[in-house]
C-alpha cells in the first residue's frame, strides 16, 4: 500500500515511518522544510515539501502521489500557539480531505485528542459527547467531521503523548514547568500514551473500521498520582501547592475499543514509561534530533508532541 504521511517529521510521524516501511508499505512524507528532506529519506520515506494550508499545493501533491491512504499527523503549536493549531486542524484537514476525495483515496487515519470528553465519573468511551466549552473543541470537531466524510476515516484520539521529543520529555515544556514549581498536585485526570504506542496504533488503524478510537494506556491517573512520579523521574523536587495543575478536571479514558481491535500498548502504564525517561535515545530520536539541530523549526510541541507541519 502507498501511504501519504502528513506531518511526517513530528514525534509520531518519525516513529511511524519505519513501522510502515517494515510492514511493506511505500511511504511519502510531508514536511514544510526542505532541510528535513534528508531525515525523511533516512527513515525510509520519499519527502514531499508541502504547506498543507495551501489548498492548491495539497491537491497537486495528493494527485501526484496517488496514495492508497493518507495518515494525518499534523500539528502546529509553535510557541504554544493554540490558535495556530486549531487553524491547522480546521483548514489543513479540510484541504487533505478534499484533495484525497478528489484523487479517489478512500482511507484516512487522523490524529485527534482524548481529553475533550464531557466530565463524568466513568472512563470515557468513544460514544460519549465531547465538551464544547473547552478551547480545543472547535478545531477537533472540524477535524473529526471532515475525516468522517472519507469512505474510510479513522480518528485516533490520543492521550497525552510522552517520550523523547514530547512536552513530557526530560527537556520538554512540562519538565521545565515542574522544575520551576509552577505545577501542583490536583485531582484532575490525565490518560497518557507513549509516542511509540501512538505510532503503532496509526499503523494498525489502516485495518480498523471507520470511526473514533481512544488510544491511551492502561492506567488513567490524577495529577496527584502522576506528578510526584514524573518529578522524581526527571530529578525535580517534589511539587508543592504553588502554581497550577495540568487540567481543570479531566476524565479517565477507556482504551477498551482499541484493545478489542487488537492493539495493545507496549508501555502499559506511564509509571513504567516515566521510569525509562533517561534511557538512551533510539535511532529514530537521534535522527530527529540531528534534523532539529539543522532545521530548528520544531522546538515547540503539540499534544505533547513536536509540531509536525
Automatic annotation (TrEMBL):
This is NAD(P)-dependent oxidoreductase. It comes from the Bacteria. Residues 3-210 form the NAD-dependent epimerase/dehydratase domain. One of its GO terms (cellular component) is cytoplasm. It comes from Actinomadura spongiicola. One of its GO terms (molecular function) is aldehyde dehydrogenase (NAD+) activity. Transmembrane segments: none annotated.
